[in-house]
Every structure is written in C-alpha cells, then in structure tokens.
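Review box. Two proteins, two foldings.
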Amino acid sequence: MPQLTDAEKALEGKRIAEEKARAEAAAKAKAEAQRIAKEKAIAAAKAKAEAEQLAKEKAAAQAKALEAKRIAEEKAKVEAAAEVAAKAKAEAKRIAKEKAVAEAKALEAKRIAEEKAKVEAAAEAKRIEEANRPWYKFW
C-alpha cells in the first residue's frame, strides 16, 4: 500500500469516523425501533388482555341478566300460581258459605214445616176430639 499523505490520512480518518458514527446511529435506530416494537407488542398484548377481560365481564353480565330474568319469570309463575290458589280458596270459601246459608235456610224451612205440621196436627186432633164429643153432658 502506498503511503498516505496527511490530508489523505485526515480524510480517511474522517471517513472512518463518519462510517463509525453512521454505524452507531444505525445501531441506535435499530435499538430504538426494537424498543418501540417491543412497546407496541406489550401495548397490543395489554389491549388484547383488556378486550378478553371485557368480553368475559360482558358474558358474565349477560349470564347474570339471564339468571335474573329466569328467577323473575319463576317468581312471576309462583305468584300467579299463588294468586290462582288464593282465588280458588276464596271461591271454595264462598261456595261453603253459600252452602251453609242454604243449609240454614233448609233447616229453618224444615223447622217451620214441623211447627206448621204440629199446629195442623193439634188442630186436627182438636177437631176430631170435638167431633167425637157427645153433644150432651152427664154432670
């Protein structure tokens, strides 16, 4: 190799320093790009995890809402059945009351009929007694 002059040595040193600086800048840029890519990957993973968590929470809320709806429907059915039972009980009570009133009326009618029969029997007995009594008296 031929000997370089001082100016050439200076230019060569400058060129080497520039290449070294470019290599360092490229390495820094590459490291920065890797750091940014890593941060983006972490952010994407966090976003995915949050989305999955939100989906789980939404599914849990929907399941809870469905369960609440099912319970409300069952409660409504039970209340409707209780209302039907209460109406049936009230109807049975009303029928029993009507039956008791009818029986009381029947007993009263029977009592009146028996009294009337007694009065009629007494009147008939008196009529027969008077019919069998002689028209004359021995005293």
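Next protein.
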Amino acid sequence: MRRVLLDITPLRESRPYRLLYLGTVTSGIGAQLATTAIALQ
C-alpha cells in the first residue's frame, strides 16, 4: 500500500521545502480564484 501513496517525507523533514511547497500551493489557489472571479464578472 505504501507504493501507491504519495511520498511526503521531504515535506516532513525539510522546513524550507515545506514552506516552498505551501507557497506554491497558495499561489496556485489564488490564481484559480482570480480566474474564477474574472470569469464571473
């Protein structure tokens, strides 16, 4: 079962990588929200 799941070891072990990942995810969510807002205008 472990081979099917995503390996999140770098997220647990590296604070700088975790911050980079969370920043990227936040940026992506913001871009999607902006796209949706523009489409709804």
